[in-house]
Each structure stands twice: as structure tokens, then as C-alpha cells.
């Protein structure tokens, strides 16, 4: 097994992931979560790593706030798109782009990171524990991992509602390898265990797209996209909806050292 490289699907990824209402909901909830994380970190420009950053929509927004970003991705084509996006938004001066695996992140940093973004990558990584440990090791004490992963529970629920019972009986094995369907949907309980084993303290969790993927017919009174986003925000941190989200976001902090307490 090896980590997924999106060189062959960069254009499709851009259109089908970022250029949709689902992608907009994902970005909105992530920004909400980061707006709560940032005030808990040191004042002044932060050192931020966007590991597996793709086109860099979130990290470009952070660069626009004056923070210093290292965006890394194994896909050269995705990095090209990220650089183009940064130039278009006028934030290239606060960003560095590196073709790298998350496991090699330490080789590209000259000081610990305050914040690491690891969004929609864990479900493509063949050795998730190694990746999470690598992130833990490069964070400064008190630093935060913003982790978003593709939720196995949400995938099962969607296929139940669609009546895809044959797919479920086959343990949801992919028929085609080169698709945008993640290689390794993650069980949240397993992910939380990996994080605590690394040494992280889990501070907050949020479901992303906790219901909107199940919508078939929406009445006009629901107020379209704005209404859907309102309800996604309302229920994103409430159980049982949180644990059924298509993605789950976790705020995980590296503890302070004893002399910093």
C-alpha cells in the first residue's frame, strides 16, 4: 500500500470537490473551527503547515491574515494549482510550496509549527499512525493539529439510505482504484485512539455535512444553500449527528511541557 497522489485527477478533484455546494459547506465549517483555534495560539504571525494541502483554499485564507504557511503535497500538479491560487489572491509572499510526504515534514521545517492542517488526507494515507506521529513531532508544545478525515460511519449511513446493500456486503471495497472515493475511510474511534497514543489531547470535534448529503428533495421554505449551511452549523457539534458526518474535524493539541504549565 502507498499514499495517494492526485496528479492524474487534479482537474477532476478541483471541479468535483471544491467547485460544489458540498465543498463550500466543508470549507465553511473548517473556517468556523479554525476561527476558534487561532485565538488559543500565540499572538503574531503563526508558523502553519498545510500537510497535503491540495489547492490551498484554507491556507491561502490564513496567509491573507499574515500567517506564514508551508504548503506540502505529494502531487506536483496540485501544488501548481495552489501556487496559482496564492498568486491570484496576492498571498504568495507568505507561502512556501514543497512537494513532500507528510511523513517527511520535519525535513522541511527550521522551527516547530504552531498549527498543522491535515484536511482530507488521512483517508488516503497507507500508514496513518506514522503520519500523525510525524505531525506531533513537528508541533511546538501547545501547538494544534486541525485534522479532518473521511468518516466510515457517514459512508455506511449514506449507502444504507441509498439501498446499496451489495456494496455494504462487499465491505465497501472500491471497484476502481483511480477515483475520488477515499481509499481508507476511517473509523472515528480508531482515529481518536491514534491521536491519544501519539500524545495529543482532543479538545473539540465537529461533524461536517452531518445531513446534507442525504437530502433528496428540499422544499423552497428551507432557504436553499443558506438554510442548509445554517442547519449544518447548528448540528455539527451535537451527537448523534456529529458522528454521522461525511467528515469529522478534530482539534487536537500537543501538551505544554511541564516548565510551561
Task: Record the SSE blueprint.
Layout lengths: L9 H9 L2 H17 L9 E5 L5 H8 L3 E6 L2 H14 L5 E5 L13 E7 L8 H11 E12 L1 H11 L2 H5 L18 H11 L2 E8 L15 H12 L11 E7 L8
Parallel strand pairs: 1-2, 1-4, 2-3, 4-5
Antiparallel strand pairs: 5-7, 6-7
Helix pairs in contact: 2-9
Key terms for this structure?
single chain; 261 residues; alpha/beta; 7-stranded mixed beta sheet; 9 helices
Structural description of this entry:
With 261 residues, the chain is an alpha/beta fold. It contains 9 helices and 7 strands, in the order ααβαβαββαβαααβαβ. It has a 7-stranded mixed beta sheet with strand order 3-2-1-4-5-7-6, sandwiched between helices. It is globular and about 50 Å long. The N and C termini lie far apart (41 Å). The relative contact order is 0.16. The model has no long low-confidence stretch (mean pLDDT 90).
Approximate strand percentage: 15-25%
Task: Provide the low-confidence segments as ranges.
Answer: none
Quaternary state of this entry equals single chain
Largest sheet, spatial ordering of strands: 3-2-1-4-5-7-6
Order of helices and strands: HHEHEHEEHEHHHEHE
Structural class: alpha/beta
Query: Distance between termini?
Result: 41 Å
Helix content, binned percent: 25-40%
- Count of alpha/pi helices: 9
- What global shape is seen? globular
The mean pLDDT is 90
Number of strands: 7
Q: Please summarize the sheet with the most strands.
A: 7 strands, mixed
> Any idea what the radius of gyration is?
18 Å
